[in-house]
Amino acid sequence: MITSRAEVSVRYAETDMMGVVYHGSYLPWLEIGRTALLKEHGLPYRQLEAEGFFLPVLEVGLRYLKPARYDDTVRITTILREKPSLRIRMEYELHRDDELLATAFTMHAFIDRAGKPVRPPGSFAEVMARLFA
Questions:
Q1: What is the pTM of this model?
Q2: Which own/partner pairs from 11-20 qualify as long-range (CB within 8 Å, at least 24 positions apart)?
Q3: Per-domain residue ranges for the chain?
Q4: How do residues 49-79 score in pLDDT, each as one tens digit?
Q5: Which residues are known to be catalytic?
Q6: Which CATH number fits domain 2-131: 3.10.129.10, 2.60.40.1520, 3.40.50.720, 3.40.50.300?
């Protein structure tokens, strides 16, 4: 299992008229967590794209437990529990201090520039093998 942490400060534009974070605002936060995890473990998404690999979202699930509000600092913990093969499932926990606000998951698959499913690049597989040894 590998993890990563990132933080966001809730901007006014991410909230509704009551100052509560709009539900769709959470999706970019998941992307922040996902790209941070990859980068921290030597797999920057920019490098994958440069090599012709992409990780589209196939599925997303989000469970809202408590509202985030304007100017909160939200901690995004991203978790990769199993070594990925053709698909990658990432899980997320979003906290304000010690308070769990939401849990989520995303499922991804590797595709090439033409949009066809492919195996992950060798460099990605090597890093994952090392991290999950």
A1: 0.94
A2: 11/70, 12/70, 14/70, 15/69, 15/70, 19/69, 19/70, 20/67, 20/68, 20/69
A3: 2-131
A4: 999 999 999 999 999 999 999 999 999 999 9
A5: 16
A6: 3.10.129.10
